[in-house]
Design goal:
This is General stress protein 17M-like domain-containing protein. InterPro entries: GSP17M-like_dom. It is a single chain. The protein is α+β, with helices and mostly antiparallel strands. The chain folds into two domains: 72 residues, Alpha-Beta Plaits; 63 residues, no CATH class. It contains four helices and three strands, in the order βαβααβα. Helix 2 packs antiparallel against helix 3. It is elongated and about 70 Å long. The relative contact order is 0.24.
């Protein structure tokens, strides 16, 4: 089997190669991924066969958090900075292969051209948006809850261990 990019698929032995729904019995339900992870870590610390365990995010949501307003100044500064970094990289590569002369010439030339092209590209892109999206955001996929499933052969033992964890003040 190969990946879409042509390389060999790297799946663990015994795991399905195609997307499949999770199987197993619910042994715990948690409000955050951190709590579910802590529960599975507790099972692992208790020498439980964690290969039988799956964490499943339920009620998935795409959350987009707005982190700031876009202005022409921010757009141009960001474009200039990213262009300058790329130009610096190209300039460094050119300085490595250039023969004789100063090695700072190609670096400064790449930096300058990168800065200008980054500035122009950012201005054109932002100008074409015509104010339809004047904010920056970060997207994240989150779940409403996280269920811990276990294969039936060990589900009761997992429930007992997680009940002890909950009684000791761990995740409920």
């Amino acid at each position: 089997m190969t990946t879409p990019f042509g390389g060999p698929a790297r799946t663990a032995p015994g795991l399905p190669n195609l997307p499949t729904p999770p199987t197993g019995w619910p042994v715990g339900s948690y409000a955050t991924y951190e709590e579910a992870q802590r529960a599975v870590d507790h099972l692992a610390d208790s020498d439980f066969p964690v290969r039988d365990v799956t964490i499943v995010g339920v009620d998935l949501m795409l959350v987009e958090r707005v982190i700031g307003r876009l202005t022409w100044g921010r757009v141009l500064a960001s474009g200039a900075a990213s262009g300058a970094w790329f130009g610096l990289f190209v300039g460094l590569l050119l300085s490595l292969v250039s023969q004789g002369g100063s090695s700072f010439g190609p670096i400064l030339l790449g930096l300058g051209f990168g800065l200008v092209f980054g500035l122009i590209f950012a201005a054109v892109t932002y100008g074409l948006s015509r104010g339809r999206r004047d904010f920056q955001s970060v997207s994240q996929l989150v779940a409403g809850r996280y269920d811990v499933l276990c294969q039936p052969r060990n589900a009761e033992k997992a429930r007992e261990l997680l009940a002890k964890l909950a009684m000791s003040g761990g995740p409920a």
